Amino acid sequence: MERHRDEQVIKKGPWIAEEDEVLMNFVNKYGPKDWSTIRSMGLLPRTGKSCRLRWVNKLRPNLKM
């Protein structure tokens, strides 16, 4: 983990199932946009970029494997 300049802890590294669930619930409610809102709402200690990349590369429903 690393500290951001406003002293909020930003988590780095592997995602856990609970984080994936929070991210999927956020996208189901608000749509795949406003990624930085996830951290500002206190839902996940991840950056907006990290959330967007997780969604685009691993979690979106129409992802081809």
Automatic annotation (TrEMBL):
Quote the InterPro entries the UniProt record gives: Homeodomain-like_sf, Myb_dom, Plant_Male-Germline_Reg_TFs, SANT/Myb
Q: Which residues does the UniProt record annotate as the domain Myb-like?
A: 7-59
| Pfam name, any one | Myb_DNA-binding
Enumerate the subcellular locations listed in this protein's record, separating them with semicolons. Nucleus
Residues forming the HTH myb-type domain are: 7-63
Q: What is its main location?
A: nucleus
Q: Which keywords annotate this record?
A: DNA-binding, Nucleus, Repeat, Transcription, Transcription regulation
Question: Is this entry keyworded Repeat?
Answer: yes
UniProt keyword Repeat, yes or no:
yes
Gene Ontology CC terms, in alphabetical order: nucleus
Q: Name one GO molecular function term.
A: DNA binding
Task: Please give the name of this protein.
Answer: Uncharacterized protein
Provide the taxonomic classification. Eukaryota, Viridiplantae, Streptophyta, Embryophyta, Tracheophyta
